[in-house]
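Crash report, auto-generated. Payload:
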Amino acid sequence: MLSLDTISINAVSLIVLYGIAKETQMYFEASMLIAMLGFVSTVAFARFLLRRDVIE
Amino acid sequence: MNGTDPIEVVVAVLLIIGAIFTLVGGYGLLKLENPMSRLHAPTKAGTLGVGSMLVASMVYAFHHAEGSLNEILILVFLFVSAPVSANFIAKVHIHRDRIGTPLPELEGEREWATKVKPEDET
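Recovered output after restart:
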């Protein structure tokens, strides 16, 4: 679970690196999406493990 | 290519710092032994590693095209959300008793705040 969080953060940095290599701003949106989804999925997974239910 | 651009040097140094922090974070995630101490290594990769890569991307964008401050958005979001998710992960580890050494006993009738169920408070 910690690794999943780290994977999403490292995916953000990889996509930023690819955006630098391609010299375009298009990949910014992709990394923003991955950052947000990574945070939301981490919180949802933690809530599921703690409470056995995501939305009560 | 003769005559190195100083901005490129700045970008390269920032990228190398980010890469080193990400590597250290991954190595610590693999090598530390119990989950609570493993939690602390990737936070360095999360904040300093990604942070310096985003700053490098901004500097590069300002140098080579019309730059934008979009990366600040990701930076602020990551800096705000990383402690929250780390707190959630730590709570999961405490509740599932995977913290290596158990939590010390408290005096009297008190209980660790994270283990008090919401029904007990009312």
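Post-recovery validation: Helices of chain A lie at 2-22, 27-51.
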